[in-house]
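Homework help board

Subject: predicted structure for assignment chain

Our instructor gave us this sequence and asked us to write out the predicted structure in token form, then describe one feature. I got the tokens but I'm not sure how to describe them. Can anyone check?
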Amino acid sequence: MSAEPTILPFKISVLVFLRDARGRFLLIRRRKAPNLNCWSPIGGKLEMAQGESPFECATRETGEEAGLAISAADLHLFGMISERGYEGTGHWLMFLFDCHKRMERLPEDIDEGHFGWFGREEIDTLALPPTDRTLVWPVYDKFRASFIAYRAECDPGAQLRMTVEESHLEPHGGPPF
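My token output:
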């Protein structure tokens, strides 16, 4: 008999991958949980009470956090991740967006954290959330021009497991993972 699933809050969020003209990624070092003191792409939670869509959330968060005005046309949805039991505190449904509009300058620090520009190779050496290192960045590398949906089992103390639920690769993309 299988155990009953843990009852935890469910949150819906977006991550937006922004770059400058040199191709460096904008990351924020978070001052708050989740991901305290870790570097990650900008993003935030959907305003569900207002019926905000993931695209609306991504454009709003990009303006609020990075100071960059964008529209839905500047975004490509390349991933959807369902994280069960993240840090033992909640379940997350995350929408991953690649932004085609480039940034011209580093944003000022905000309450959420401070920003930095990083080349893709540098990112692997930073303090990252564990799921960003093992799931989010590899998905970005492989699927940023296409699409993937997957479920990640993130229960503390258990091995991180990923199940691909749907993927679409460019002609030379190869098999998922």
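Reply (TA_rk): Your tokens look well-formed. For the description, you could write something like this. Helices lie at 54-66, 120-123, 130-143. That's the kind of observation they're looking for.
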